[in-house]
Amino acid sequence: MDRSVAGIILAGGQSRRMGGGDKPLLSLGKARLIDQVVSRLGPQVGTLALNANGDPARFAGTGLPVLEDTVQGYAGPLAGILTGLEWAAENKTCRALVSAAGDTPFFPGDLVERLTAAAREGPGAIAVASSDGRWHPTFALWPLGLRDALRHFLVDEDNRRVSAFMERHGFVEVEFPMIEADGQRVDPFFNINTPDDLAEAERLLQSLQP
Question: Is the pTM of this model over 0.85?
Fold first, then answer.
């Protein structure tokens, strides 16, 4: 655990391909999808919160603070990251924020450790996870000093592209290995978008359990 790093779980997606509703509240194994994500990210950070709009009571079972976007309108993942940065900046012991998607239950247990190590090699840079030659912009470490620039980018420029913000401010990529399960290679950043994805996640969860 790195106590100087805060974590934000982006749980505010609109889940159109799942038929609407709160995708992170779907059942996965003996828990909910959000519980799987919390159990992975929680031990890696000093403090943790969820980003979601609407009634926070629906996430009460997580025991975590639920932060609404600090910008108006549904502005996508960058709004959640900005919210997380501004929240983390209020904690004097925090120096960076790690973001994670609330629909991705198998991300690495050393995510924060490796992102933090990469960020030390490029001070001030964003460290972003990648796998199998593809980067995952919602899984990244963000220096708290970027929050004003991100608010300007999102609000004044009305630009919602996570990758565009990263490219402007500099980033380092951190490659994570694929997961081996039942003789298959599975992306650790496999995310659940459809009912078929949820069924695949159930099969993967069973195969990964000892």
Answer: yes
